[in-house]
Amino acid sequence: MTRAQVFFHLVVLALTGGSCPRALASEGGPAVSPQASVQLSSQLFRSKQPPLPEFPPCSPMTEAMLDVPRAGMPPAIGPLPQLSFCAEWNPEFTANGHHCCGKVGGSTRRNRRLQCAAHRRKASYCSEMTPEQREYGRQAADGTLGDVLERISREAWLRGDQSYCSVNNGFLAWGRRLIPSEANRILIRRADRCADFGTDPMIGMMEWLGRQVKQEFPAPAFSGTKLVVGDISAPRGGCLSGRGGRRGHLSHTTGQDVDIAFLVAKAGVESPFYFHRQFDIQPNWWFIKKLFRNPYACVKVVFLDKRLIRKLAKAVGKDPEWLALSRFIRHMPGHKHHYHVRVGQGPGEPGCAENPELELEDFNDELDLLDAPETERF
Ligand SMILES: [Zn+2]
């Protein structure tokens, strides 16, 4: 566990009275075996929620993001990284006045007019890749890297935190690129943009989901069923530009947010290579359940338009999993043609945090400002 994670953990314990059962076990609380800890975690979660399939229990690793001060929260969750580290990784360090974390905020109306720093108003972020990131992408694409998912599983969390500051104005260290392959049925909507970098848990989750699609639809007639992925983050995170120089998204700065097209699974039909409004219940409910169950990253929230949430509720509202998961599927304007998924720093139960309600309150000012169907290019 890194110093930041230990510090965050202690802060959480102080704030919650140690409500996370895994925390009690690992911080010298009552002696609880790992198995009992998992059971206890499940019991506590289920005492407030309808039954859910087994998820990894909460852990200090799950949500250890450093953050800028917020109302009602400590001044910083964990020590801020060294300035030299921020200078190396944060592509907006200079634009932030040589501070690690910049500021973004205000009303949604004002956010609509926000722009990225001048040097980042561009269509492609490929020039911001490190040599190591370039080499990884090359080897993963030509197969010389070996099994990508096995590699992610081996390397994840070895270098500590990857996401810094806030999701709306942060950066990403050691970002990993999502690479389409025969194994994963993934299509990157705009690979030339180089905005398909994420944290290890994020990329592990996406790679795993892409493989789940292949497993679920193995018949040759469904070989065109693909997981179409939009923006995640730039190689080092930071602001992503959209059309006309405006911000493309309010978030997507720390490698923890991803836009995904609705799943189209029809025999003999290729999935549209763009965001679209075709929302078939069966494949998409299957996808949502897989998403929340992925073993790499806890899902904090899925943004979706309210009409689609109502459509889902009408069709699967009696499914116990809907009763349990629907509180993490939130309406947000601008999400009629894609999912926006936000993950935590590691595996864990839906919501990630010890107190998911606190987390959900933070999402009220969130938009994919300029995500648009294929017809609206920037
Ligand atoms: Zn998004």
What count of structural domains? 1
Instruction: Please write the string of helix (H) and strand (E) elements.
Output: HHHHHHHEEEEEHEEHEHHEEH
Q: What gross morphology would you assign?
A: globular
Number of helix segments? 12
What is the percent of helical residues?
25-40%
Q: Give the helix/strand class.
A: alpha/beta
The biggest sheet amounts to: 4 strands, mixed
CATH class, named Alpha Beta
Radius of gyration: 20 Å
The first-to-last residue Cα distance is: 42 Å
Determine the strand fraction and express it as a percent band.
5-15%
- As for the CATH topology, it is Muramoyl-pentapeptide Carboxypeptidase, domain 2
The stretches of 5 or more residues where confidence is low (pLDDT under 50) are 1-47, 64-78, 361-366, 369-378
Average predicted local confidence, pLDDT? 78
Quickly give the CATH architecture.
Answer: 2-Layer Sandwich
Widest sheet: strand order? Answer: 7-10-8-9
Question: What are the bound molecules?
Answer: zinc ion
Tell me the number of strands.
Answer: 10
Annotation keywords:
four-stranded mixed beta sheet; disordered N terminus; 10 strands; two-stranded antiparallel sheet; binds zinc ion; Muramoyl-pentapeptide Carboxypeptidase, domain 2; 12 helices; alpha/beta; 378 residues; disordered C terminus
